[in-house]
């Protein structure tokens, strides 16, 4: 009788342990994303100042400013990591075009406010990259766990779904050419 109870308890204990491990991994993913989100908000706050500084020197580049504003709005209104990841890729591209535009204006490149904003933006991008590594590590651990047997049995029945990685786009991998 005792052996039957022990044999019956083993799968129950395994199920509880596996479920709790999956919850911890999912919480780790959510925490990692929250850390990225803080840096993305900082980035979103810097961009209007950068646009306004560039506008002072290149006011006729309205389409570039509109593209940055639209991309920023889309990124700020994104819901959840997967949508935010896509929106941030568009914002990165738009800001890249804005910074490339600045190359055509030597007075802008020499402006202390522009240089300070550019430094703050670069610092924020570096922070995002570091947090992205932590997030991707957490997502990889979570996704691997929910896809491996026997944890997949608990994961699929309890609604644990694969999370998206926050990967760098090809445009982000290429360093922009900066000429002084």
Description:
With 180 residues, this protein is mainly α. The chain has one domain (2-173): LemA-like domain (de novo design (two linked rop proteins)). 81% of the residues lie in helices and 0% in strands. The chain has helices at 2-57, 62-76, 80-102, 106-110, 112-147, 151-157, 170-173. Helix 1 runs antiparallel to helix 2, helix 1 (2-57) runs parallel beside helix 3 (80-102) and helix 1 runs antiparallel to helix 5 (112-147). The longest helix is centred in the N-terminal third of the chain and has 56 residues, at 2-57.
SSE order and pairing:
Blueprint: H1 2-57, H2 62-76, H3 80-102, H4 106-110, H5 112-147, H6 151-157, H7 170-173
Helix pairs in contact: 1-2, 1-3, 1-5, 2-3
Spell out the key features of this protein.
de novo design (two linked rop proteins); rod-shaped; mainly alpha; 7 helices; disordered C terminus; 180 residues; 0% strand
Provide the structure class: mainly alpha
Which stretches of 5+ consecutive residues score pLDDT under 50?
A: 173-180
Shape: rod-shaped
Distance N to C terminus: 83 Å
Radius of gyration: 23 Å
SSE arrangement, N to C: HHHHHHH
- Quote the CATH topology: de novo design (two linked rop proteins)
Q: What about the largest sheet? A: none
**Fourth CATH level, the homologous superfamily:** LemA-like domain
Q: Please tell me the overall pLDDT.
A: 89
Q: Please identify, by name, the CATH architecture.
A: Up-down Bundle
CATH C-level class is Mainly Alpha
Percent of residues in helical segments?
over 70%
Count of DSSP-assigned helices? 7
User: How much strand content do the residues show?
Assistant: under 5%
Number of strands: 0
Number of structural domains: 1
């Amino acid at each position: 009788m005792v052996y039957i109870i022990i044999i019956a308890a083993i799968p129950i204990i395994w199920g509880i342990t596996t479920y709790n491990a999956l919850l911890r991994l999912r919480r780790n993913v959510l925490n990692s994303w929250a850390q990225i989100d803080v840096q993305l908000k900082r980035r979103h706050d810097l961009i209007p100042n950068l646009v306004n500084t560039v506008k002072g020197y290149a006011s006729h580049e309205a389409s570039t400013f509109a593209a940055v504003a639209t991309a920023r709005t889309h990124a700020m209104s994104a819901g959840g990591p997967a949508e935010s990841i896509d929106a941030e890729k568009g914002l990165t591209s738009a800001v890249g075009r804005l910074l490339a535009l600045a190359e055509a204006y030597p007075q802008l490149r020499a402006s202390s406010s522009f240089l300070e904003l550019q430094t703050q933006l670069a610092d924020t991008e570096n922070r995002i990259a570091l947090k992205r590594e932590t997030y991707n590590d957490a997502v990889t651990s979570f996704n691997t766990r929910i896809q491996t047997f026997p944890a997949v049995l608990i994961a699929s029945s309890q609604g644990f779904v694969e999370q998206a990685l926050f990967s760098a786009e090809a445009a982000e991998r290429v360093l922009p050419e900066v000429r002084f």
